[in-house]
Amino acid sequence: MAVSNKKLLNLLLVDDDEEFRTSLADQLSLYEEFEISQAGTASETLEMAKSRYFDGIILDVGLPDIDGRELCRLIRQAGVGAPIIMLTALDSDADTVLGLDSGANDYVAKPFRLNVLMARLRAQLRQHEQSVDAVFTIGPYNFQPGNKLLESRDSQSKIPLTEKESQILRYLYRAGSSAVSRDTLLAEIWDYKPEVTTHTLETHIYRLRQKLESNPDQPALIVTEGDAYRLVP
User: Residues in domain Response regulatory (predicted)?
Assistant: First the structure.
């Protein structure tokens, strides 16, 4: 059975109202799965979105320097594929269409209930994780589960993965600093099929190490802990 202590999801919260932004960040921080970063202007947001990876962005329409919808377009043009949920004080169909056309994934009108925002956010995060746009950092690589691909950060090398290899990496990544037992991986990846043995999993781990590790005989990224495996940040 896998232990908790999941990988934290990085969220960027953008709103020029510092009191509202801080209050919402505090509420989101109560959900232990999230790590919250904040920005109050479009220029600050764009710089952060280009330089860091975020799993999701919550973006207010009314910003002091650029309209939030224009900022959303600029974020998409910069190649950022993370889910973006727009916040607005306006609640009209035309305003929603403008927001979605700018590249937002969803639109939430203020005032809103936190549980509604959380449900919308989690739905977008789940959908994004399965998409070709999802990118996770593993050691010196960017991992694209949708494309079943590992790419070095300098984009000099690309390593194709099999479907099972990609599933194993994604599961270990989501476990964060927790070790995942062989039984759990067999159950989650192979669905307890009777013909699948521990040797099958060990073979896949061996092949993954050959692809990821600089020295597969002394793995530094996928380490063995007793009867379990752990992905090292």
Answer: 10-125
What SS3 state is found at 207?
helix
Q: pLDDT tens, position by position, for the chain (233 residues)?
A: 333 445 578 899 999 999 999 999 999 998 878 889 999 999 999 999 887 778 899 999 989 999 999 999 999 888 788 899 999 876 655 565 665 777 889 989 888 999 999 999 999 988 877 666 677 788 888 888 888 899 987 767 899 999 999 989 988 887 777 888 998 898 888 876 666 677 889 999 999 999 999 999 999 999 999 999 999 86
Question: Please, what is the end-to-end C-alpha distance for the chain in angstroms?
Answer: 21
Q: What does the angle CA 152 – CA 225 – CA 195 come to, to the nearest 5 degrees?
A: 85
Residues in the chain: 233
Question: Which residue type is seen at 228?
Answer: A
Cβ neighbors of 228 (< 8 A, separation 6 or more) are 179, 180, 181, 182, 184
What is the token pair recorded at 180?
């995942």
Q: pTM of the full predicted structure?
A: 0.61
Strand locations in 82-176 (E): 84-88, 106-109, 136-138, 141-144, 149-152, 158-160
Determine how many CB atoms are found less than 10 A away from the CB of residue 53: 12
Task: Report CA-CA distances (Å) from 214 to 4, 37, 210.
Answer: 29, 33, 8
Cα gap 185→191, rounded to integer Å = 9
